[in-house]
Amino acid sequence: MLHHIGSTVQFNPTFLAFAGHYLFEPTAAPVRYPEAKGRAEGIITYIRHAFFYGRWFTGIEDVRSQAAAWRDQVANRRFHATTRERPCDRLLSERTRLRPLPDRPADTDLIVPAIVSQGARVRLDTNTYSVSHRFVGRSVFLRVSEASVRVVCDDVVIAEHPRCWDRRRALEHPEHIQALLEKRPGARTPKRRDRLANLSTQCRQYLH
Predict the structure, then answer these.
(1) Whose CA is closest to 8, among 23, 30, 25, 38?
(2) Are 37 and 28 in contact (CB under 8 A)?
(3) Rounded distance, CA 105 to CA 109, Å?
(4) Domain positions in the chain
(5) Could you give the CA distance from residue 118 to residue 175 in angstroms, rounded to a whole number?
(6) What pLDDT tens digit does each residue of the chain (208 aa) get?
(7) Cα–Cα distance, 126 to 89 (Å, whole number)
């Protein structure tokens, strides 16, 4: 929400577009009234205590894999305290009342403005991503999904990288670095330790 004054609510227009895409109507809970969304908060508490505590994860994909197994084998097979039914059984009876998801998913990419540095890189979170040296000093936009980072200049994608969920990593395409060094032999490149760490997860573990 952008503003919430009494019963008057102004939702973020991007969120309203998302709601329209999936055909649901958002309802704003009253300000400073947590009891209005107690069930939602209760679900978070349940997941935190029943799934997250006591587990170890090697990365985001491991989180998703373990969460899917826990959902199917534990959460959806327990008897729910309110419905007195297992969620997996309840879903079978409710499925006929549910709308199918759209064929095309909603655009949920994060759009971040950036300026290409002298080292031909853009920064996202604590990581840097290489681009061609021809765009040094240019204003660009980062179009960020959970899997990729695309650098856009004048509506053209000038670089694309896998999104890094580590911290303080330098992701680069070799052709970007080679072209930069040919134009500016004295240009700074990532430290040798960083370049080695970027080779693989095993390299990072070895350095650690």
Answers:
(1) 30
(2) no
(3) 11
(4) 3-97, 110-207
(5) 16
(6) 898 887 789 999 999 999 999 999 998 888 777 777 777 778 888 999 999 999 999 888 899 999 999 999 999 999 988 889 999 999 999 999 998 999 999 999 999 999 999 889 999 999 999 999 899 999 999 999 989 999 999 999 999 999 998 888 999 888 888 877 777 665 555 566 777 777 777 887 887 7
(7) 44
